[in-house]
């Protein structure tokens, strides 16, 4: 391709992008969902927390699973003024007790609701919330209501597999992590600093 044709094509592309940038005028917080079976949902949420606090914004994290694991992100971010509320049961796939898990979930949800009603928070992460809805520990209406009545400029990130379609519909940005390969399938152990 000649230089002038290349330039022409780049200019057309730039015009299109500029028009889309011009068209996007709404300013408000958004609901982001990272779902799917591939690795990267929780790390993407924490990547966004780093961005937010790097710009001096306020973020809070609620984790609906993994109560008994140590957690690299928490070690780093809590001293930076990011509050963490982690469901305290040590809930795992093997030991599910519906009654105690529901209680733990509802207790954790109270913290979530608090952040979702506090305009000081620019970003709220609800890590692994999807399971709470699919196991019926948490009422879907209660979740949608809290999301819809949150402060206008507050953004929220929900992570977890198999997200309910109502939440997907409510979201502004949805990304599905699709596994192409995972080291675990080749027998490689989960690693501190990579997997948690
Ligand atoms: P990460 O926390 O690494 O971003 P994730 O949030 O996308 O992962 P989860 O479904 O929350 O994934 O799973 C939590 C743990 O399982 C993490 O340690 C992650 O590395 C691991 N994991 C994620 N996807 C897979 C997979 N497809 N196969 C095996 N292990 C996985
Ligand atoms: Mg996760």
TrEMBL record:
Indicate the secretion signal residues. Answer: none
Which Gene Ontology MF annotations are present?
ATP binding; corrinoid adenosyltransferase activity
Compartment(s) where it occurs, according to its Swiss-Prot or TrEMBL record: Cytoplasm
Q: Which domain of life is it from?
A: Bacteria
Name the Enzyme Commission number(s) assigned to this protein: 2.5.1.17
Major location category of this protein: cytoplasm
Ordered alphabetically, the record's keywords are: ATP-binding, Cobalamin biosynthesis, Cytoplasm, Nucleotide-binding, Porphyrin biosynthesis, Transferase
Q: Does the keyword Transferase apply?
A: yes
Q: In which pathway does it act?
A: Cofactor biosynthesis; adenosylcobalamin biosynthesis; adenosylcobalamin from cob(II)yrinate a,c-diamide: step 2/7
Record's catalysed reaction(s): 2 cob(II)yrinate a,c diamide + reduced [electron-transfer flavoprotein] + 2 ATP = 2 adenosylcob(III)yrinate a,c-diamide + 2 triphosphate + oxidized [electron-transfer flavoprotein] + 3 H(+); 2 cob(II)alamin + reduced [electron-transfer flavoprotein] + 2 ATP = 2 adenosylcob(III)alamin + 2 triphosphate + oxidized [electron-transfer flavoprotein] + 3 H(+)
Q: Which InterPro entries match?
A: CblAdoTrfase_CobA (IPR003724), P-loop_NTPase (IPR027417)
This entry carries the following GO cellular component terms, namely: cytoplasm
Q: Name one GO biological process term.
A: cobalamin biosynthetic process
State the NCBIfam families in the record: cobA, PRK05986.1
Regarding protein family, the annotation reads:
Belongs to the Cob(I)alamin adenosyltransferase family.
Q: What does this protein do?
A: Required for both de novo synthesis of the corrin ring for the assimilation of exogenous corrinoids. Participates in the adenosylation of a variety of incomplete and complete corrinoids.
Protein name in UniProt: Corrinoid adenosyltransferase
Q: Which organism is it from?
A: Providencia huashanensis
Annotated gene: cobO
